[in-house]
Amino acid sequence: MSRFVSKKRKSLLIPYFLVGTVYCLIVGYVQGKIALLNGLKAVYISTTHNLPIESALWFLPALLWVTILYAFIDIFMKESLVKTICIILITITGCVWNKFFHYLPWGLNSAMSVLGFFALGHFYRMAGETHINNCLQNKNRNFVMMMIIIIMTLFGLLIMNNGSVNIRVGTFGFFPLAYLNAVVYILALFLIAQLAVNENDMEGSSNFKTFLINFLVRIGEISIVYVCFNHPVLKICRKFLLNIGLHTFSTIEVLLEFILAMLLIFLISSLIEKSPAKYVFYPKS
User: Which residue range(s) make up the domain with 166?
Assistant: First the structure.
């Protein structure tokens, strides 16, 4: 357990503190001493509110907490029923915490609220993968796709009517519905990805499909870079679009901004891998 925690702490907290501190120094240089102190307080104490420049950094300490929580429960609670009840109670506590109390430092209540997602992901890896693959046999593909479209349409309407969901600040609308919507959509999108990129079709896949698969796999491998540079890169891309005359922020322009940001962060990750910074973002290197 201690080795596991130490490994996770190194891979998540080192980039969090390094990048967070650099952002604090930048904000302090531009806005002054008070902004610097507020930024350091946000990075080293709250971790979820008022983070300078890159608010998505909160995800890293929260991920550390949820990983530790689940590992502790999984190791020390042997009875499946007791384990399940404990996970449910912690998840509910995290979802309703901010309605009654002030948010906890280090994103602990955010981590508690997503413990259920983490547990479901682990369950899928351990037991659900075979069942999913059975649903994706060629004879079932059309039926599965039709059901996915119907389910996504129905649950899409529920999502639109459940209010804002923000794990960082602990807002979930009606949280049981928010959880159900999220689980259903995650599963539906996963099934679509599996149907589109079936291992049996890999030999005859087009160059574009192969490129897309490799690109998405690569994003998964360098996801920590996306977390650390997401917002500043988006701002740079938006500034670029404004400078070339795109300013209506239509769906097409937002999509273009997204694609540019993804490519720019991909480039940043390639530069990081060729520099000493790779030992911060990729501790296994």
Answer: 136-196
